[in-house]
Structure formats: structure tokens, C-alpha cells
Amino acid sequence: xxxxxxxxxxxxxxxxxxxxxxxxxxxxxxxxxxxxxxxxxxxxxxxxxxxxxxxxxxxxxxxxxxxxxxxxxxxxxxxxxxxxxxxxxx
Length: 90
Description:
The protein is an alpha+beta fold. The termini are far apart. Strands 1, 2, 3, 4 and 5 form a 5-stranded mixed sheet that branches. It has one helix at residues 46-68, and strands spanning 6-11, 16-23, 28-30, 33-35, 77-80.
């Protein structure tokens, strides 16, 4: 009997930070995310975007795990965005 493999993934290469929990068969169990929105006529500055992501990162992980089981013990592997895009938010 196969154990259910579950991955926790992080994506934060642009203005959106997301945390996903998926199974090996590609079933999405959770996918909370938060978008950094700049004032009108301003672009995305890497430093401010990185601060936004840092502020929302742990709450998004908690939200994702709460949806699944509220325990990091169910996670078998971690996945993350390596690049390209803005390096500082990564």
C-alpha cells in the first residue's frame, strides 16, 4: 500500500507569494496566497516586495497546514521557486 506523498511548495518570484500543498497525484489540497499591491503609478521594488513576502510567509504556511491537518508532520518534501524573476523576493 502506497503512503500518500504530500509536498509543501512556496512561490514568491514576483508580487504574489503563495504556499501550496499538493499530493503526488497532483491533487491540490491547499493554495493560500497574498498579493503585494503598489500605489498607482509605482512599480514593484524588490526590497518592498521582499518585505511583503516576509510578512505574509508564516501566516500562509499556517493557513495551508490548517487546511490539511495542522501538522507539518504530514509533509514529505518541500518545493520552491528558484528563479527567474526578482531575486530579492525569492
